UniProtKB/TrEMBL annotation:
Its EC number is 3.6.4.13. This is RNA helicase. A motif (Q motif) lies at residues 171-199. Residues 202-386 form the Helicase ATP-binding domain.
Length: 634
DNA sequence: AAAAAAT
């Protein structure tokens, strides 16, 4: 399967351009259908925000919510295998998500989903998110989203779950009642079949359980947490809002580590919630706050935000978290690393957000180092750990190469690669190439040098204005500047279709960062190429890089193996705690070294009445991974 | 050591 490097480039380019590389990307769906729906809807009187609990009622009638009976939110709607799990008991002993939540389930006159579409709505005011991107053509759209995912590659994907009473996976969206509106949006997105992470995560989340999920970005994890949140809000309790107050009370909070990723999540969430009567608002720094405040004032059910701007909004009392029922951290390991952790802790623990167990918490990332899992467990209640592994499957679609390049040779070497892509490519255009460097200054200077040498490039990093950053991304996506020089701001989560080649001009120091970077190509089942420039300065990465590549059935150069070996039996060498080959993730609760203190790790220990973890049937058997593994992608 | 994230 794997051939020469030149072939790899050519293949990646073919793959990138087969669907029209200059066309924009992320948009989904069927303009005609959506437009027809819009046209058919009645004209609104006003654009005033209508809170979810009022949207499916006649204006004058407001029923008092009826306390829910015994079972979980959607027990009645779920297949028998998916009933609210007994493992979902809280310290107090009551059923998990419905306790103390009047109207959480079943109070809405039988809970028929269709009822939400009636009455006075402002849906026709809702901008159709499926038509947002300019040059949408069928050709450009095909092969986006799930339609392009190579499901064959997923068939044998290893999956590991642990935790109590894990709900079984589904194999179709139809098996779970997400509601008519969401189902319609799934259709508009042309999602035919859930991806592996969706198959497992959606039933877990719909059952109300907390979740820590290791899943490769690009495998549909945004949808995996958005669908349950949206459908949960639609059947949820009233979100009250005080008259005269400018404070808003979102039901769900989705946090991400970069502004661009928040923007992207917002765009996706808007598609998933289109005409569902659920409002999604995004807030991030670097942009004027006033417009964001206006959006918030129009009402918000789901708030997507970066931490700094959210703290600002909280301190201004323009947002309150006291109604949060769903908390999602995307790129959760990044959110909890040294730079971010205090801010996240402040938001989650020191503002007015309901405590764990009172809310549903979901953490997603492609990598999950053990020590970060330990931190994360502070936020989780009796959670399920899910790892969608990748052995010999989807990530094989990324061809990884490492080349030994001295610092002084990097620029000319890059030039050679870029030239080769031009010459070998089927298109006269340059294939989209994402070049990662270490520093912001380095990014600027490399961009300048590339432009001077006839390669149209732009750059994205934290010293640029937000406008410049977003412009750079647009210009790259459109192919206007097919080379993007980036710092790690672009390493995580960004879905940039048609990236044929990721170049690690400067390798990161952490193998997890490498994993995230190369994940910008080979997305959604497409093939991609990743080239790394390695030299003496990167020797600390040699071992984990060699192991990772071996793991992914990549060709490991002998010189790299020698580097790795030299480090492993040097004094005190040993495995880096954070590194090691990653396939599947491993629940840190299963590590014997953690067992003694297990009570610390899942929900404050002794309070809840369930069995101890060690006694849980899922434990101890069937691990497909290496015992030493600490993180995962996919 | 660098990058990101509020003004």
């Amino acid at each position: 399967m794997r051939t020469s490097w030149a072939d790899s480039v050519a293949n990646a380019e073919n793959s990138a351009f087969a669907t029209g590389a200059s066309a924009s990307t992320n948009n989904a769906a069927n303009t005609n259908t959506s437009a027809a729906v819009v046209a058919a809807a009645p004209r609104p009187d006003r654009a005033a925000y209508v809170p979810p609990h009022l949207r499916n009622r006649a204006p004058a009638v407001v029923e008092a919510p009826v306390p829910s009976p015994i079972n979980g939110p959607s027990a009645a709607k779920l297949p028998s295998g998916l009933r609210a799990p007994s493992g979902g008991t809280r310290p107090g002993g009551g059923p998990v998500r419905d306790m103390g939540r009047p109207g959480f389930g079943g109070s809405r006159g039988g809970g028929s989903w269709g009822s939400r579409s009636g009455g006075w709505d402002r849906r026709e005011r809702e901008v159709n998110p499926f038509t947002n991107d300019e040059e949408t053509t069928d050709a450009a759209f095909d092969g986006q989203e799930n339609t392009g995912i190579n499901f064959d590659a997923y068939e044998d994907i290893p999956v590991e779950t642990s935790g109590e009473n894990v709900p079984p996976p589904v194999s179709t969206f139809a098996e779970i009642d997400l509601g008519d509106a969401v189902n319609e949006n799934i259709r508009r997105c042309k999602y035919v079949k859930p991806t592996p992470v969706q198959r497992h995560a959606i039933p877990i989340l719909v059952a109300g359980r907390d979740l820590m999920a290791c899943a490769q970005t690009g495998s549909g994890k945004t949808a995996a947490f958005c669908f349950p949140i949206i459908s949960g809000i639609m059947r949820g309790p009233p979100s009250h809002r005080q008259r005269g107050s400018r404070t808003v009370y979102p039901s769900a909070l989705i946090l991400s580590p970069t502004r661009e990723l928040s923007i992207q999540i917002h765009e996706e969430a808007r598609k998933f919630s289109y005409q569902a009567g659920v409002r999604v608002v995004v807030a991030y720094g670097g942009a004027p706050i006033n417009q964001q405040l206006r959006e918030l004032e129009r009402g918000v059910d789901i708030l997507v935000a970066t931490p700094g701007r959210l703290v600002d909004l909280l301190e201004r009392a323009r947002v309150s978290l006291q109604n949060i029922r769903y908390l999602a951290l995307d790129e959760a390991d990044r959110m909890l690393d040294m730079g971010f952790e205090p801010q996240i802790r402040k938001i989650v623990e020191q503002m007015d957000m309901p405590t764990r167990g009172q809310r549903q918490t979901m953490l997603f990332s492609a990598t999950f180092p053990r020590e970060i899992q330990r931190l994360a467990s502070d936020f989780l209640f009796n959670y399920i750990f899910l790892a969608v592994g990748r052995v010999g499957s989807s990530t094989d679609l990324i061809v990884q190469r490492v080349e030994f390049v001295l610092e002084s040779d990097k620029r000319s070497h890059l030039m050679d690669l870029l030239h080769a892509q031009r010459v070998n490519g089927t298109s006269a255009k340059q294939a989209l190439t994402l070049v990662f460097v270490e520093t912001k200054k380095g990014a600027d200077s490399l961009e300048h040098w590339l432009c001077m040498n006839g390669f149209p490039a732009t750059t994205i990093h934290g010293d640029r204005t937000q406008q410049e950053r977003e412009q750079a991304l647009r210009s790259f996506k459109s192919g206007a500047t097919p080379i993007l020089v980036a710092t790690d701001v672009a390493a995580r989560g960004l879905d940039i279709p048609h990236v044929a080649h990721v170049v690690n001009f400067d390798l990161p120091n952490d193998i997890d960062d490498y994993v995230h970077r190369i994940g910008r190509t080979g997305r959604a089942g497409k093939s991609g190429l990743a080239t790394a420039f390695f030299n003496e300065n990167n020797s600390s990465l040699s071992r984990s890089l060699a192991e990772l590549m071996q793991e992914a059935n990549q060709e490991v150069p002998q010189w790299l193996s020698r580097y790795a070996a030299a480090r492993s039996h040097g004094g005190g060498g040993g495995r880096n705690r954070r590194s090691g080959p990653r396939f599947g993730g491993r629940d840190f609760r299963r590590d014997s070294s953690n067992r003694s203190g297990a009570g610390d790790y899942f929900g404050g220990g002794s309070g809840y009445g369930g069995g101890a973890y060690g006694a849980s049937p899922g434990y101890g058997g069937g691990a497909y991974g290496n015992p030493g593994l600490t993180s995962a992608w996919d």
